[in-house]
Amino acid sequence: MTPTITAFARSPDRGRGLARDTRVRWALEEAGQPYEVRLVSFEQMKGPAHLALHPFGQIPTYEEGELALFETGSIVLHIAQRHAGLLPDDANARARAITWMFAAVNTMEPPILERETARLLERDKAWTEERMPGIEDRIRNRLGQLSRRLGDAEWLDGEFSAGDLMMVAVLMRFKASSEMLEEFPNVFAYVARGQARPAYKRAFEAQLAVFTGMAPAG
Ligand code: GTB
């Protein structure tokens, strides 16, 4: 059954691929699975029909027959568990790849999000300037740790996995301001490798087409 995902009808990122539907599109592309997209306005996201799918009134959601999911990590894991290409067969390697998915959203993403919130939403607050160096120290610390673990490897643990997909997607949040990422050349190259994957490029083009008005309405 072809799944349907939701995405912003008008993404505030203006097609830069930063909204989280890109992660789900990428996973589906890696798995070679067709999908449909239902575009939702901010108003629709907060209405009862969408809230029944997503209790927090956000995108993306994922519907497949009777199943409705929210939370990108869970959706990507669901796709990865049902289709080849995103998780290794070996049980231990599979558990490690899933660990990297959690590390991406639970360890790397929080300080990155904190910085974005401070820069974009709390810029006018008196404490933002004072708070920023502490946030950036926390991000640099995490990037340094990730950089040491990655070393010269192509991916985090053997073959490309859903762990890399989530980690690259989280690190792409630096797209708007890549200076911090450039301080860690191997991590910078790792993100570029992820973005060079044909499946990522297809996912990126598909979300961009929504912004440029080329996408078929779902
Ligand atoms: N934990 C959830 C998940 O991983 O699925 C978080 C989902 C989430 O944050 N969704 C955002 C949303 O629906 C869109 S992706 N926001 C609307 C709302 O909460 O009312 C986050 C996002 C939005 C915009 C940009 N941007 O413009 O650059 C980047 C990322």
Q: Which characteristics define this entry?
A:
218 residues, alpha+beta, Glutaredoxin, Glutathione S-transferase Yfyf (Class Pi), Chain A, domain 2, 4-stranded mixed sheet, binds S-(P-nitrobenzyl)glutathione
What does this protein look like?
It is a single chain. The protein has 218 residues and is α+β, with helices and mostly antiparallel strands. The protein has two domains: 4-85 and 199-212, Glutaredoxin; 91-197, Glutathione S-transferase Yfyf (Class Pi), Chain A, domain 2 (Up-down Bundle), CATH 1.20.1050. It contains ten helices and four strands. Strands 2-1-3-4 form a four-stranded mixed beta sheet. Helix 1 packs across helix 10 (198-212). The protein is globular. It binds S-(P-nitrobenzyl)glutathione.
| Counted beta strands | 4
Question: In one word, what is the shape?
Answer: globular
What is the strand arrangement across the widest sheet? 2-1-3-4
Bound ligands, named by name, code or SMILES: S-(P-nitrobenzyl)glutathione
Helix content: 55-70%
Round the Cα radius of gyration to an integer and report it.
Answer: 17 Å
Sketch the topology as an H/E string, one letter per element.
EHEHHEEHHHHHHH
- Overall pLDDT level: 95
Query: In total, how many domains does the architecture comprise?
Result: 2
| Main β-sheet description | 4 strands, mixed
Percent of sequence in beta strands: 5-15%
CATH topology of the largest domain: Glutathione S-transferase Yfyf (Class Pi), Chain A, domain 2
Span from first to last CA?
Answer: 16 Å
In DSSP terms (H or I, runs of 4 or more residues), the helix count works out at 10
